[in-house]
Design brief:
Shape of chain A: globular
Helix content of chain A: 25-40%
Strand content of chain A: 5-15%
Largest interface: A-B, 51 and 51 residues
Radius of gyration of chain A: 26 Å
Number of helices of chain A: 22
Oligomer: homodimer
Mean pLDDT of chain A: 95
Chain lengths: 723, 723
């Protein structure tokens, strides 16, 4: 009978795979399509016959639903729930380590070091029966283990003699949504906010569940629902009811909800005369508000705060410091176990010095003064998510303060959701950078994971690229950046190749003739984009406000550090921002060996050359070319490489589904057009300073500079146009 | 071999239907799921064996793709394309009447009166073979015929001896999208605009195709892409390239693209000193612009214009009339066959008289003065898409001008996409209303379909309720309103019951125990909503600006006719707007017999009583109750009926898919809560005038009036919150 069912299911999926499986991208990497390779299908079917889930908590029910859905889909058979946990061939036993069933198979499991959220996946033989045990200290670990087992099958790994022990390297693995209450998303390029506030709390969109599933599958355990440019309305009771409904939907998947706290909320919501953090009335207001939140959401995570930055209110409005602001909120949250995440992304409205230096200048002196439930959240680089930046000098510079990493998953400066840019290589470049603050191997990763300075509280945030587009992220490949962020937050030792391959296998195909070309595309993609946008350490030369397209000509705005000329400083002699000791001295914020490298025209990596140096147009580069010629070559190489992406993608035609194949093809065409505009605009603009011809071997841009300067992008997404 | 394939497919669909068919509503009424009833499946399989599509045009290719997709899905067998058009058992022959294949089967087809867009579906016997012929004058008629055949199967109609001839009663069957270029949708409650302007023209979202399919399936043949509160940017070349891409995507499905024309565009785009329609420069500007559009879009439909209304610019800014404005644009469009649709929704900023009278006062004198490529588009009622209005007095009053009907499909005043309100009964109530302008049976439908005044150019527009929500319309039942609009625009003689049943069968189930209760819900739903919102002819008492929830207390705003008290005029004596000859005299805009009915306190339908009369609280109603008691009873009955909707929906549990069952259940809960707020707020508010108790048999509201007056809905969808 089982055989027959199995046949029917197999048949169903084989037919479905070829006939009508719609691939609109909604399923993300959790596709669970029937395994096409007979060998694998048969092997897994031999190894998996039934499921035992010990326990009934919402999280374990979610785990049970997921493993059944996944196995039924992948194996094409209906894998039953076992009626008892006793040994039988092909049983998968899932449960907490403390549960009788798990104890029966893994009597020594207590000694396994899974940590709070980790898990083991262990093959156990009892007599002639081979059982796979997924066990964890907590329910959520079981859920994570289930997703891990499914991933093994999705990526065609052997289930033979499994002995896996996983635990996350970082405690708080968090998405930051910059979602406004009107459902616009600041820097969002995948439609609009998932959170349908108007229909909450009664209407629980299936997307909320699928969002939670996707996050849990990669270990993301926290989400900030609202924009850091915060709106106090989210703290009203009406909205907290809605937040509560979302928290209830996410809780089974191990995801805690955080909110952004607008520092002036006591004034705006309850007409207090001040929001001074040292004012007792203000403190009481926040204490009450926090209590109110925890009454609705007992596991509420806490507040993310952007204060005194880009017009946001903050403690400095009252002559108080970031420390005083953060600690006031920390006091309110402390009784409930909540956390304050205070952003270090601040720079003065009056632009007193190199913007790249300001976060360090402001926060380093505060090291050691924050309460122990405060994180300082630091962007990966000192400016603002540019295509390439050096690591932020605060990493390693505040040993007494747990620093959270803030990556940007949404491609604000990297072609929106139109450009294929795999961000894992960018993330890894930062994580692997050696701050050398405590000698060698003081990597950014070790700052963030707490091992460098012995912090037990650790965190990594990614600014989400998720919207209400059917495929969640706008670009099929943008899904890989959500995926990679989660995987690296769990384990930053994974390589970008490993993550790419996992994702390709789960998302597109397990066939080598798909995996190999697509992996090459992904691995090359970030550098390609840097080349056609901001090669050699250039930065912040994008369009005004919407940040779309090139605009190195921006100058004379109300603040200098929102212009482009402030950053590239091109003149007749050369180009680049001198941040050495002859310039802004920003290099001095790094540990001496790093500072020395960056300061040296010779030792500074060419990828960051113009970040740290004002360099003569005639400077001889490693290629043997002058700086000017090299700059041109990089721009042209970037665009040519987009053509290479297009050609490479053609290789998978017919090997992936038609719909997504067409989507990526159309987007690559757009990327090529936009890359060409970047190249031509930048080369022609910088030429007005270098006064040199474009190298003869390179074609001349199609239009004069004025054409590019006149391009406008009204209604580019990601900002409110009525601002 | 065919048998075997058939078995496999059947199996696939049976399994799929029970195992994993996701029902997120994306498929709309074009679900094409395997026929569950064996009898029907077998019968149809006997009758359909192969398809012959004569011709290769994009429209015929779309028709071929659709019929194959539909039949494969419904029948669960792969219905092949025939290799030749010769008779064979179960052949479906599709093509133009003029094609050899069709001529072979229907030699007299030329004489069939299908009209330009109509079609025939005819069973033809040749020898022992029975063939079904779908034939039309034009390709699009073949496509419509294909959708009709699929609908017959989707709704389990017999295919025996088919002899169908269909042609639309109305020529221009049009959606009006109030979509802004930043993708917000004015009065949109289903997410944001489908049109992803940023990724156009290169990226053709699959939704554009599926949108066109859905429209074609119900005969909608025109779409206005942009908001009537218009943005001139859509007329720039950058945007016209994007519009062109959409027009190309829609063209195979017989859908023409229209745009809204901002009257001041010549000033805004090209710095002309004026937009005076009599200025030769302005005329030349529009002539050039129109030529530019037609170079990109040879079948461009024309312009929809909202002028001199609610702040929009128009000819009156220059002392010119609507006629002069419309005719200027008509002149520009005329050489290319384009059309101007000029909205009659105008009312003076200075509120000189009853707003209900103003469109008539302004437009009736212009009858006969518009060029012959101008439509005047008139909303169904004289105010603004209220839950119930009398028909607009312009219908029948401008015999020399083709009047387009403007219905609102999006539920601006009818509970957004949260309330289950089937609008077909509202549409029909208006269409069936007898204007009596030329004696009896001068129905609004006959004004609109041109038969009353012998107009060959006819049109019906519906303000779309479509957004980028996965299920398109936000509420599963809101899809029925898109569907019903299209069906009525094609054939207004269809009954609301017929349309509801078709839709339920295609969308949910062909089982009577689903059809019957759901049809009852739909048929009752509009009256239910009128009862808990605006019974007995009340109108315009909703929330300020966002129009969500009750606010009969609104007064003292900068213009009287944007308040609620202006419309309900409640005082200690009674309630209602006297529009009889003792009042605003609006009744005089109707034909004498209609005016007489509306003017008479006795004859006026109670459903419109307070629209036309200021009535004493003590007035004795047909029920025997006083007006006050009747008003209370209507409000309470409305809310009680929502509970009935909830209970009735429970009857289909397990008979429809889980996901949509849950969605509707959650939304009905929200509807109940909001209906209760409407009831309590209105009853308590009007009680302050009637000074009478709520009838003893009715429960007392849960809160005092102040509670309801303090409710706010920040960030309610459908308006830009930064305005």
């Amino acid at each position: 009978m089982l055989q027959k069912t199995s046949f029917l299911f197999a048949l169903y999926f084989v037919v479905s795979a070829t006939v009508c499986r719609s691939e609109n991208g909604y399923e993300l990497w959790l596709r669970y399509h029937l395994i096409a390779e007979e060998k694998w299908r048969d092997t897994y079917r031999q190894q998996i016959k039934a499921i035992w889930m010990e326990g009934q908590s919402p999280t374990l029910l979610a785990a049970a639903t997921e493993i059944q859905k996944g196995l039924n889909g992948l194996l094409g058979i209906s894998v039953p729930r076992a009626s008892q946990a006793l040994p039988q061939k092909g049983l998968i036993v899932c449960g907490k380590i403390s549960s009788p069933a798990v104890q029966n198979y893994l009597p020594n499991a207590d000694r396994l070091r899974t940590g709070a959220e980790g898990y083991v996946i262990q093959t156990v033989r009892q007599g002639k029966n081979t059982v796979i045990v997924i066990a964890a200290q907590q329910d959520v670990g079981v859920l994570y283990g289930v997703f891990h087992l499914l991933r093994l099958i999705q990526t065609r790994q052997s289930l033979h003699n499994l002995s896996i022990a996983e635990s996350p390297k970082i405690q708080l693995r968090m998405l930051n949504h910059w979602d406004n209450l009107d459902r616009t998303v600041e820097r969002g390029y995948a439609g609009f906010s998932l959170w349908n506030w108007h229909k909450l709390p009664n209407y629980i969109d299936q997307r909320y569940i699928d969002y939670a599933r996707a996050n849990a599958s990669i270990g993301i355990n926290a989400t900030v629902l609202t924009n850091v440019n915060a709106n106090a309305h989210i703290l009203t009771d009406d909205y907290l009811r809605k937040v509560e409904a979302l928290a209830n939907a996410f809780r089974p998947y191990g995801i805690k909800v955080f909110l952004t706290a607008r520092f002036s909320a006591p004034i705006e919501l309850d007409k207090l005369p001040t929001a001074d953090p040292l004012d007792p009335q203000v403190q009481q207001w926040w204490n009450r508000k926090v209590k109110e939140i925890y009454q609705r959401i007992p596991d509420f995570g806490g507040f993310l705060v952007k204060a005194n930055s880009e017009g946001q209110p903050g403690p400095q409005n009252y002559g108080r410091s970031h420390k005083e602001g953060a600690n006031m909120l920390a006091n309110a949250l402390q009784p409930f176990g909540g956390t304050v995440i205070w952003r270090a992304f601040v720079y003065d409205n009056n632009v007193p010095e190199d913007r790249a230096k300001q976060a360090y200048s402001e926060f380093k002196p505060l090291d050691g003064t924050f309460h122990n439930n405060v994180f300082v959240q630091v962007k990966n680089g000192p400016i603002d998510f540019q295509p390439r930046e050096p690591f932020h000098p605060l990493f390693g510079a505040m040993p007494q303060t747990p620093l959270m990493m803030e990556f940007q998953i949404t491609q604000e400066y990297l072609g929106y959701s139109t450009h294929l840019v795999y961000l894992s290589t960018l993330f890894k470049e930062v994580l692997d950078a050696d701050t050398q603050t405590t000698g060698k191997n003081a990597t950014v990763a070790r700052v963030v994971d707490g091992t460098l300075n012995n912090h037990s509280r650790t965190g990594m945030a990614g600014v989400a690229n998720i919207g209400n587009d059917i495929n969640w992220c706008g670009h099929p490949f943008a899904q890989a950046n959500w995926y990679a962020f989660g995987r690296l937050a769990w384990n930053h030792a994974l390589t970008s190749e490993e993550i790419a391959e996992e994702w390709i296998r789960m998302t597109f195909s397990n066939q080598p003739d798909v995996i190999e070309p697509v992996k090459k595309m992904m691995m090359a993609s970030h550098e390609i984009t840097v080349n056609y946008m901001t090669p050699l350490g250039l930065h912040h030369i994008m369009g005004w406000s919407h940040h779309h397209g090139p605009a190195p000509w921006i100058k004379d705005k109300h603040r200098a550090d929102w212009t482009s000329v402030y950053y590239h400083k091109a003149d007749s002699a050369g180009i680049g921002f001198d941040r050495t000791l002859t310039g802004s001295k920003a290099v001095a914020q790094y540990a001496p060996p790093v500072a020395e490298t960056f300061s040296s025209l010779e030792k500074c990596p060419e990828a960051l050359l113009l970040w740290f140096h004002h360099v003569s147009w005639k400077h001889r580069m490693k290629s043997g070319r002058t700086l000017w010629a090299e700059l041109c070559h990089r721009y042209y190489q970037g665009v040519d490489s987009v053509q290479w992406l297009q050609q490479t993608w053609q290789q998978v035609k017919g090997k992936v589904d038609e719909e997504r194949f067409a989507q990526v093809s159309m987007l690559l065409k757009q990327q090529y057009e936009e890359a060409t505009i970047w190249r031509d605009a930048c080369v022609l603009y910088f030429q007005t300073f270098s006064k040199q011809p474009i190298p003869a071997e390179l074609p001349i841009p199609a239009h004069p500079l004025g054409h590019y300067m006149n391009l406008t992008y009204p209604y580019a997404p990601g900002i409110k146009w009525d601002w």
